[in-house]
Every structure is written in structure tokens, then in C-alpha cells.
Design goal:
The complex is a heterodimer of chains A (220) and B (233). In chain A, the strands form two sheets. Chain A has a ten-stranded mixed beta sheet. In chain A, 14% of the residues lie in helices and 27% in strands. The longest helix of chain A has 10 residues. In chain B, strand 9 and strand 10 form a beta hairpin. Chain B is globular, with a radius of gyration of 18 Å. With 233 residues, chain B is an alpha/beta fold. The chains are: A alpha/beta (220), B alpha/beta (233).
Chain lengths: 220, 233
């Protein structure tokens, strides 16, 4: 019988809730495809946050009830959404102007790797037989005032996804300001990678063992 | 008298020639002019260069066009999707050329073509594989990549309402690439679900002014179906 070692982790919903907690009232936010879309479910009800999707909608509401889907009203993941009062539609060039022009406050993305200086790799594994697809990833990475990443700190095989230099193809350079993982929240600053939160039950030293990037304990 | 209303899809698409660059509107299924694509398949033009955000879903619309083998090259941002197997097979067997463009650069290159801009510096893609070999410049401390416009011979787009001057409105997020593609092609053909008298569209709500449109053609309204993502069973 093998011995199972359980280490404390935040669930995906807990990570999403932690991100949501850091999104201020009035912010315009783009939630990337996949894990980041969970953040929408955890936005505090006393804050008004406007959701943007790059296919041309701002003021997105929750998914429609079953049977109410309108596939002319979709998000960037091509899934049906709804529109809140005040929301509107626009064409693709305007939508990416909102992003590239620095009008979005926060963008939350998934990642394969993030480097200590905030380089992001999330669009391609570089596998030779893979069919490349980039979508809005490169625009999103560099467009918002703040780019947050949600990812596991380690791969399933135990390699750190927070790295000194990305080995996967780059999506954007020096664009990630904060990384939310299952065990810690880490700010990437010119002074270094500052740990601002660690899951209960894990020590700073144990956390440091999981990544080659030198961490700074900045918990208040 | 100006009358841009085509009597049939066949008539509207007749000028399309072999080797043409054709922009096709749509993001996944939303805004994809399925009837015009079917018309292009029936028309038979080959050796085409297609500009679209994606590379088709299942075996309908754009995917059906790709399946005919008449598309030489596709310029898009996100070919790989849960249901893009027609493209995947063509690409893997070397039967189609792919120019992969970040989505915002794709939109801006189309917009630039329509606006008569010869090129622009964009921060998107700087330092990545997709900017390899491209001219870069530092402007006010930020790094940019030079990108060029994408012009087309034809644009096939899906709108909601049109009039005989070619003024168009769209429906929800089906708008996506329609308005910019309309500006970037020598000849734009729009399908609409409703044709109204001149003056019936509130001038404050016209999204694409008729100057950008050559023909409109009425097609029956059918609900847009899901496409491009893995659906729960």
C-alpha cells in the first residue's frame, strides 16, 4: 500500500474567489477562457464590475437559463451569455482597441508558465505536431492595466510553472503582475517575486522548495 | 437609382474569381454568413485565400468550404477548436497554408486596409514567435511590431437589416468582424434577414454605412447554432 501525502491546497473556486476579492468596484475586466471564467461566480455582490469579452461585448451577464441560449450572444469561449442593462456590442477593432489602448483595468488569464519578470507563456506548448492557435491571448496579455494569472504552481509531474525563464513560446513579455496558485499568491515586482498569501498549513520554506524562483516573504 | 439588393446569392457572388482573397465574417458560428459560404461552394471558385477568425466548425459553413479543397491559404487567429477537424486534417496533411495572426492584430490589419493605412506599430506579439522577422521599434519606451494591412477582393458578411443603399445593422455579438471586413474588401456582399425602405433604419443606429457595401441579399432567418466549444453531453 502506498502512502498518500496530502498537502493543503486552495480549490479552484477558492482561487477564483481570491482573485475576485482583488477586483475593485467599478473595474472593467476580461476573464480569459477556462479557469479564469470562474472568477465571475465569485464577484462580491456589493461591487459593480463590468465584464468585457473580446468578441465584441461589454456588460456581460451570467449564462442564460437552459433553453434560453442565443448563439448570436456569446463570449470569447463561444459559449452563450447574457447582456446586463447598460451592456453593448461593438466590432472587433473597437474591442481590441479597448484592450490594446489600455482601457481595461484587469485581465485574468491561465498560463503554462510565468517567469519571475512577468513573461507569460500560455498560447502554445511548442509541440511540433500541434496545430497553432493564438486567438486574443497576445492582445490580452499586454492590453490591460493589470494582468493576473491563475495557474497551478506545479505541473502534474511536479515541475514549477513559475520559472526563471519561460521554455514554452512567449505570449507577452513582462506583462504579468500577479499569479494566483493553489498554494500561494505571488506579486511579480522589479524587486522580485513577493509572496503575499500562502494557503494555511504550508510554510514559506515548503513553498520555496516548489519553485526555482527566489521568493520574498511579503505577507503583511 | 442606386439599388444594391441582389436578386439571388448566385448573382451577388458571380464576380468571385479563382485566386481571390475572400474575407468571411463570423466568430465561431455567430456572424458566419452560412448561406453566402454555401453559395461560394456552389459557385466553385478555387485557389482561394480566406480570412476569418477561425477555420470552421464541424462540416458546415467555412468548414464545408475548406473540405472542397478550394482554399489554398487561411489567415486566422484561432484555427484549432473542439470541432475544427476538417481544418486539422488539411493542415496536418499539408493541404492548406496557415497564416496565424493574433486576434487583435487581425482586426487592426483589416481595419487598416479599410482605412487606407499602410502599416501600423502594435505592441501585440512583440518578443514572440509570431513577430519573428518583423520590423520593431521602440516608441516612448514601449516596444512595437510593424504590421501590414490585409486587403481582400471580396468580403462575405452577415448582417441583420439592410436597405437598398447598403446601410447595415447587426445582431448582438454576430457583429464581430462584419463592419471592418466590409471596409477592407473591394466588393462586400452582406446577407441580411430583413430589407427595409430607405430611411427606415434610424440613421443614428446604422453600423455599416452603405458606402462600404456592394450587394445585400436577403436570406431566411434561422437561429444561430452552437459552434466552437465542447458541449456537455
Amino acid at each position: 500500500m502506498s502512502e498518500t501525502i496530502t498537502t493543503p491546497v486552495w480549490t479552484r473556486d477558492q482561487i477564483a474567489a481570491r482573485v475576485a476579492q482583488d477586483i475593485p468596484d467599478g473595474a472593467v475586466v476580461n476573464l480569459g477562457i477556462g479557469l479564469p471564467t470562474k472568477v465571475a461566480n465569485h464577484l462580491p455582490s456589493d461591487r459593480e464590475v463590468i465584464l468585457h469579452s473580446e468578441n465584441g461585448v461589454i456588460g456581460m451577464g451570467p449564462a442564460p437559463a437552459k433553453g434560453e441560449e442565443d448563439y448570436d450572444l456569446i463570449n470569447a469561449g463561444k459559449q452563450p451569455v447574457t447582456l446586463l442593462p447598460g451592456g453593448c456590442f461593438f466590432h472587433h477593432a473597437d474591442s481590441f482597441a479597448m484592450m490594446r489602448g489600455g482601457h481595461l483595468d484587469v485581465c485574468v488569464l491561465g498560463a503554462f508558465q510565468v517567469s519571475a519578470k512577468g513573461d507569460l507563456a500560455n498560447w502554445s506548448t511548442g509541440a511540433p505536431d500541434a496545430i497553432p492557435a493564438v486567438g486574443g491571448a497576445m492582445d490580452l496579455a499586454i492590453g490591460a492595466k493589470k494582468t493576473y494569472v491563475m495557474m497551478d504552481l506545479q505541473t502534474k509531474t511536479g515541475e514549477s510553472k513559475l520559472v526563471e525563464e519561460c521554455t514554452y513560446p512567449i505570449t507577452g513579455l513582462s506583462c504579468v503582475s500577479r499569479v494566483y496558485t493553489e498554494v500561494a499568491v505571488i506579486d511579480l515586482t522589479p524587486e522580485g517575486a513577493k509572496v503575499i498569501d500562502i494557503v494555511d498549513g504550508l510554510s514559506f520554506d515548503e513553498l520555496q522548495k516548489r519553485t526555482p524562483v527566489k521568493l520574498i516573504d511579503a505577507r503583511g | 437609382m442606386i439599388n444594391k439588393i441582389a436578386s439571388s446569392i448566385e448573382q451577388a457572388l458571380a464576380p468571385i474569381h479563382d485566386g481571390a482573397t475572400v474575407m468571411i465574417g463570423g466568430f465561431g458560428g455567430a456572424g458566419q454568413p452560412a448561406e453566402l459560404i454555401d453559395g461560394l461552394i456552389a459557385h466553385g471558385a478555387k485557389d482561394l485565400v480566406i480570412v476569418n477568425n477561425n477555420a470552421g466548425n464541424a462540416e458546415i459553413g467555412l468548414a464545408a468550404l475548406l473540405k472542397t479543397g478550394r482554399v489554398r491559404k487561411i489567415i486566422c487567429s484561432f484555427p484549432r477548436q473542439a470541432d475544427s477537424y476538417v481544418f486539422d486534417e488539411l493542415y496536418r496533411s499539408g493541404k492548406i497554408e496557415l497564416e496565424l495572426v493574433p486576434q487583435g492584430n487581425l482586426a487592426e490589419r483589416i481595419r487598416a486596409a479599410g482605412a487606407g493605412i499602410g502599416g501600423f506599430f502594435t505592441p501585440t506579439g512583440y518578443g514572440t514567435e509570431l513577430a519573428k522577422g518583423k520590423e520593431t521599434r521602440e516608441i516612448n519606451g514601449r516596444h512595437y511590431v510593424l504590421e501590414h494591412p490585409i486587403h481582400a477582393d471580396f468580403a462575405l458578411i452577415k448582417a441583420e437589416t439592410g436597405d437598398r443603399w447598403g446601410n447595415l445593422t447587426y445582431r448582438k455579438t454576430a457583429r464581430n468582424f462584419g463592419p471592418i471586413m466590409a471596409t477592407a474588401a473591394k466588393m462586400t456582399i452582406a446577407s441580411v434577414h430583413e430589407i427595409v425602405e430607405l430611411g427606415s433604419i434610424d440613421p443614428e443606429t446604422v453600423v455599416t454605412p452603405g458606402i462600404f457595401v456592394k450587394h445585400i441579399v436577403k436570406v431566411p432567418r434561422t437561429a444561430t447554432g452552437p459552434a466552437g466549444f465542447k458541449q456537455e453531453a
